[in-house]
């Protein structure tokens, strides 16, 4: 078995835990955006330290200028998504929020994969994948049923 699916599960678990922790940070500070800012600051610091510690070459000015402008927009989407997580989790709970968020992620991921947007590998939609999406929506309905 490949280690990649295990790492993907670990990443998902880490997101669920960090979302709950950081949402509570926003609640404790009484300022969701400040909690999000602190979380992003810590994440940026850890990422920078890891980048400095790993032996890789840094991109030069030509490489940075060659990056298409729309690729820099991902940080805006990260801030929006994470900010919404921290705002919604104290109101909805981690389980319901994650179930809806995961559904949104997978629905858009299916489209991105089907069309190969952002120069990513094309993975066409199949009837089996669509059945999986329907099962996912049914699971979200069951998870959120009171």
TrEMBL record:
PANTHER family registered for this protein in UniProt: INNER MEMBRANE PROTEIN YDCZ (PTHR34821)
The organism's place on the tree of life at top rank: Bacteria
Protein name per its UniProtKB record: DMT family transporter
Keywords: Membrane, Transmembrane, Transmembrane helix
InterPro entries referenced in this protein's UniProt entry, alphabetically: YdcZ
Electron transport keyword on record: no
Signal peptide span: none
TM helices/strands, residue ranges: 32-54, 66-89, 95-118, 125-143
Keyword Membrane: yes
């Amino acid at each position: 078995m490949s280690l990649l699916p295990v790492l993907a599960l670990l990443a998902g678990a880490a997101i669920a835990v960090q979302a709950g922790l950081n949402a509570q940070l926003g609640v404790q500070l009484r300022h969701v955006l400040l909690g999000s800012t602190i979380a992003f600051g810590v994440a940026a610091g850890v990422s920078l330290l890891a980048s400095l510690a790993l032996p890789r070459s840094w991109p030069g000015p030509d490489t940075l200028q060659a990056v298409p402008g729309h690729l820099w927009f991902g940080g805006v989407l990260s801030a929006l998504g994470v900010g919404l997580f921290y705002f919604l989790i104290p109101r909805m709970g981690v389980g319901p929020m994650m179930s809806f968020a995961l559904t949104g992620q997978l629905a858009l991921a299916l489209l991105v994969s089907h069309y190969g947007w952002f120069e990513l590998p094309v993975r066409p939609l199949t009837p089996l994948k669509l059945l999986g999406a329907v099962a996912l929506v049914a699971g979200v309905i069951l998870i959120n049923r009171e």
